[in-house]
Amino acid sequence: MNFITRLINIGAFPSNDVFQNRLVKAVNIININAIVCLIVTALYGQFIFKNETSFYILFACPIYITSLIFNRLKRTMLAFSLMFFTSSTLMAIYCIRTGEESYTHIHFTLMITGISLLFRRLENRIHFYVNAIYLILCILLVFVSFQTGFLNFLVDQRVDPAQQRHLNFVYLIICSIIFSSVIAITHQTQQKALEHSLQEQKVLLAEVNHRVKNNLAVIVSLLNMQMNSSKNKETKNAIQVVHNRIMSMALVHQKMYQNKSAIAVELETYITELVAEIKNSVALQQDIEVTMEVEPINIDVSVAIPLGLILNEIITNAIKHAFDDTLQPKIDIRLKIANDQMIELTVKDNGKGMIIEERDEDAGMGLNLIEALTDQIDGKCDFEYENGLVFHLSIPAPKD
């Protein structure tokens, strides 16, 4: 049993990835299967049917052994192609020898299924197409031979056709059973390995999100301590700006960790908590009413972080600068998907508005940041005045 295991694992190295080792093992198993079937068929024909030509089939054994050697030398694609070309050629010869009425050529479907092992990876596609073309040529050769009979010399006239069919079917049935089993088992083990690898990746990404969240939380705490100990108002304001920006990023990783998602953030809860955090962190001169109408949309973290930073800039600027003379300050936030193609965000306040050309240095830096972040997520933004400042942002909706 250990000997068979060693044979199957020829060329399967720990440095290979899961797919490569599964393909290596599949090639080994098919080669070993072919060699065993050739030997069994030759012995069966020689001693049971007294067929003198049965041993001719053994000429293919060295080719399958060579395929095993190539596999051992990490030339898996060459080993696969050599094995596949040999099997396709033998299949064509058996079909011609057995005759059209036996329908032996149906076994070509096994070969078609077999080359699907190569189709899982982009770099293997060229080998897949070469093998597929060769297989198609073999199939055409068989059908042309059936129609014209120009390869009848392959049929030994001394052998009873019934015997020949019986012998060929012994070989083909054994190959079919084992070959089908190899394909099914290989596919199943690959699927399990991929699922296991995917689960590991999810755990690792969740751990990364957790650590990033914790590290950003530490930075936020340090900024809070520095802000509380500072006596200078300008220094406090500068630290507050940095604090809010980092907090918006930390919140993204927190939501991903809480939702057990490695890449997606649910915007409804994220925006709700982001607004609450901003209101808590900024010293409010008066109570500000915030209304939200946010559709439940999941977006990638690469979009969620810039979007959170944009919202932070807009809301923070509104809270700090928009409501000096406003009796009942309000901020309205709306987010929806339009025409299944774009996510549209609108933030409107009822404050004094702002003339873009007359913005101060801090506001100018914030607006430049908003424009840069909008470009980063392939969006478009604009401001308008409508009984207060209105901010519009459009970004591409995530694809299902």
Structure description:
With 400 residues, the chain is of the alpha+beta class. It folds into two domains: 2-196, no CATH class; 230-396, 2-Layer Sandwich (Heat Shock Protein 90), CATH 3.30.565.10. Helix content is 63%, strand content 11%. The protein contains eleven helices and seven strands. The protein has helices at residues 2-8, 18-47, 61-72, 76-98, 108-115, 125-148, 161-229, 233-258, 267-281, 301-322, 361-376; strands at 264-266, 289-294, 298-300, 330-338, 342-349, 380-385, 389-396. The strands form two sheets. It has a five-stranded mixed β-sheet, covered by helices on one side. A two-stranded antiparallel sheet has the order 1-3. Strand 4 (330-338) and strand 5 (342-349) form a beta hairpin. Helix 2 runs antiparallel to helix 7, helix 4 (76-98) packs antiparallel against helix 7 and helix 10 (301-322) runs antiparallel to helix 11. The longest helix has 69 residues, at 161-229. The chain is elongated. The protein starts with a helix and ends with a strand. The mean pLDDT is 78.
Subunit arrangement of the protein:
single chain
Global structural class? alpha+beta
The total number of structural domains is 2
- What is the percentage of strand-forming residues? 5-15%
- Output the helix-strand order: HHHHHHHHEHEEHEEHEE
